[in-house]
């Protein structure tokens, strides 16, 4: 691998995100595994890469404000060089402004374009970093939250402006790292003590038992992780498992399980007694579930390849089924900011796939059993429309209370979860019971 600078790497990877549709976290992790970049440069590259990606829409509006040529008309590399330079100037106090400009110019290959990049950035500095403003409220919100207006409009219409703004403003913050204690092996109190002894700052979550918020390093690097004492999981996924309410001795199906976080929580809630069958469409993702269960010591978990849209008679019947379907992901943009720039063109097609998975998943449930439909999005077409259609077409099912003992949203049968509720990702959960 070539010895690229941190800035050059960030520009290169941003181009791959823009042109190839890769997920940011996977792309960066895979690159660093092969890179000889030192730790300090990796940290700088990570901050620059994610920061620029998160604020891409806002940075493009600034470029267009200072350029005769709109950002979208520029060459991809030039666009990303300007984006990263502006991000450093505006948000990375450790970088001198002159260094941000000079290093950006060095990255430009064409001598003619070097002058353009240099002039734009220096004009920005001479104007005292004046930002564009917009008379249209939607456009101003889009700029302030660095989110395309079409998504701002969709969220405001479907979720209400307050909840939409909550989600969008939260997406610009650093999300907490939340872990679920493996109660089959330890207690949350003992795990907290152990992680603190390893140098982590740890706080017990105030909403759900057995969850901790940690900072001060990578949790996967800890001895506690290697010993299978926890897995990383956002609180919203914990709420989903709470709604399922699995009990020891049950047979539970997790139909779209990879990478396995909810599978593991379900098995732990069952004290590793019973059978948790986890499925995914791809063999490599099934291996992730298997290796995770092995690390956690969860022998009740089995994982296999399965197409969730097609009924498989070999699976058998279950006491509870979790149907956490692939989705647009608009609830997790604080983790994957590239999701903000997705087209809406495929949403109806995606919703139909989700419904086929839900419809098929219901076939495995015993009478009296519990079915959970969940997504990590807040799109009505993927959430409410699918659950309404399901109840209309499946009269043998009825809506059921997610929980009655939580103190928050007790008795609700479906819930759109926003960050302000629990500090979690955006999420949707709906619960049904099979009556006959």
List the helices and strands and how they pair.
Layout: H1 6-20, H2 24-34, H3 39-54, H4 56-66, H5 76-91, H6 97-107, H7 111-126, H8 137-145, H9 149-159, H10 161-170, E1 177-181, H11 188-197, E2 201-204, E3 211-215, H12 223-226, E4 230-232, H13 235-244, E5 251-254, H14 261-269, E6 275-280, H15 283-296, E7 301-305, E8 318-324, H16 347-361, E9 365-375, H17 384-393, E10 397-399, E11 414-417, H18 419-422, E12 427-434
Parallel strand pairs: 5-6, 5-8, 6-7, 8-9
Antiparallel strand pairs: 1-3, 1-4, 2-3, 9-12, 10-12, 11-12
Helix pairs in contact: 1-3, 1-5, 3-5, 4-5, 5-6, 6-7, 9-10, 13-14
Commentary on this structure:
By secondary structure, the chain is of the alpha/beta class. It is 46% helix and 15% strand. The chain contains 18 helices and 12 strands. It has helices at residues 6-20, 24-34, 39-54, 56-66, 76-91, 97-107, 111-126, 137-145, 149-159, 161-170, 188-197, 223-226, 235-244, 261-269, 283-296, 347-361, 384-393, 419-422; strands spanning 177-181, 201-204, 211-215, 230-232, 251-254, 275-280, 301-305, 318-324, 365-375, 397-399, 414-417, 427-434. The strands form 2 sheets. Strands 5, 6, 7, 8, 9, 10, 11 and 12 form an 8-stranded mixed β-sheet that branches. Helix 16 links the parallel strand 8 (318-324) and strand 9. The radius of gyration is 23 Å and the shape is globular. The chain starts with 5 loop residues before the first helix and ends with a strand. The mean pLDDT is 94.
């Amino acid at each position: 691998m070539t010895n690229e600078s941190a800035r050059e790497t960030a520009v290169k990877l941003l181009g791959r995100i823009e042109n190839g549709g890769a997920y940011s976290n996977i792309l960066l992790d895979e690159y660093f595994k092969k890179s000889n970049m030192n730790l300090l440069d990796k940290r700088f590259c990570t901050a620059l890469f994610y920061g620029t990606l998160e604020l891409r829409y806002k940075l493009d509006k600034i470029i267009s404000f200072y350029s005769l040529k709109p950002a979208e008309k520029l060459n991809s590399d030039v666009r990303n060089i300007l984006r990263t330079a502006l991000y450093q100037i505006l948000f990375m106090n450790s970088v001198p402004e002159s260094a941000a400009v000079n290093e950006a110019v060095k990255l430009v290959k064409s001598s003619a374009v070097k002058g353009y990049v240099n002039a734009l950035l220096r004009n920005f500095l001479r104007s005292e970093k004046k930002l564009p403003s917009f008379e249209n409220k939607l456009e101003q919100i889009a700029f302030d939250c660095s989110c395309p207006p079409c998504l701002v409009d969709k969220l405001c219409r479907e979720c209400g402006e307050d909840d939409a703004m909550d989600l969008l403003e939260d997406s610009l913050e650093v999300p907490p790292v939340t872990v679920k204690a493996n109660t089959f092996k330890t207690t949350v109190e003992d795990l907290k003590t152990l992680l603190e002894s390893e140098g982590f700052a740890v706080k017990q979550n105030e909403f759900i038992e057995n969850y901790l918020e940690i900072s001060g390093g990578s949790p996967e690097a800890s001895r506690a992780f290697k010993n299978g004492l926890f897995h990383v999981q956002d609180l919203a996924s914990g709420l989903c498992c709470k709604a399922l309410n699995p009990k020891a001795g049950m047979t539970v199906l997790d139909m779209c399980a990879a990478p396995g976080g909810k599978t593991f929580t379900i098995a732990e809630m069952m004290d590793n007694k019973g059978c948790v069958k986890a499925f995914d469409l791809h063999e490599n993702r099934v291996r992730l579930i298997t290796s995770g269960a092995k690390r956690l010591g969860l022998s009740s978990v089995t994982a296999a390849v399965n197409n969730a849209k097609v009924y498989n008679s070999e699976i058998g019947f279950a006491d509870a089924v979790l149907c956490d379907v692939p989705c647009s992901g608009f609830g997790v943009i604080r983790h994957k900011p590239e999701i903000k720039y997705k087209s809406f063109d495929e949403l109806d097609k995606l919703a139909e796939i989700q419904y086929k998975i839900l419809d098929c998943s219901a076939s495995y449930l015993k009478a009296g059993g519990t079915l959970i439909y969940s997504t990590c999005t807040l799109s009505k077409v993927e959430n409410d429309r699918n659950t309404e259609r399901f109840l209309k077409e499946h009269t043998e099912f009825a809506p059921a209370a997610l929980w009655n003992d939580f103190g928050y949203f007790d008795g609700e049968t479906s819930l759109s979860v926003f960050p302000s509720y629990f500090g979690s990702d955006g999420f949707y959960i709906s619960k049904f019971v099979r009556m006959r």
